[in-house]
Amino acid sequence: MTTVLIVDDQPLQRLGFRLLLNANPDTSVIGEAGHGAEAVRQAAALRPDVVLMDIRMPGMDGIEATRRIVASGARSRVLVLTTFDLDDYVYGALRAGASGFLFKDALPEELLAGIRAVAAGDAVTAPALTRRLLEVFMEHTSDCVGSAWEDSRLTGLSERERDVLLAVVEGLTNGEIAQRLVLSESTIKTHVSRVLAKIGARDRVHAVIIGYEAGLVGRGPRR
Question: Which of 95, 171, 174, 197 could make an SS bond with 131 (beta carbons 3.0 to 4.6 A apart)?
Fold first, then answer.
């Protein structure tokens, strides 16, 4: 059972999410919050597996709430829900520590799949959407001078792990990475887990951000 905290300033929106999630046997809504400050308090008290976080709310917004929840060291993972397509609010939320985002008009099965993915520590955006996100994210990232692999976060990676990280940065799924590197999908899953641990990434989205910040965009492996 995955426990969920719903954060949205619209009562009807919260009600809709609650009805959907409580009707699903694998999810349970254990709390609701109407603004960011309440979300931080509820997350600390209830310790949900996943926080469904709206971005634009009165008072403390979803970005600051996400930052505080992640900074607290809580096990809760944040899934951002937005009506805005790839705007600065989404980038701010990802930089604050959110594990991904979905649009509020996502299909019920997409939302449920997203919650399961976040709870498992994976990214929730579809690969095509991830690539769109990262193309725009690159415009918000300063140019990197020197070799990307000299970044202190990446120096401990083996050559194979570098190849895996590059593929993750490109937004490839485990299956696509397996095809590229001619390895089994289970082996790729193991490599991805090791890469995340070595570079200090919370999840795949965070790994992608680290890769972009280090300057891996548009680069081949540097060995």
Answer: 171
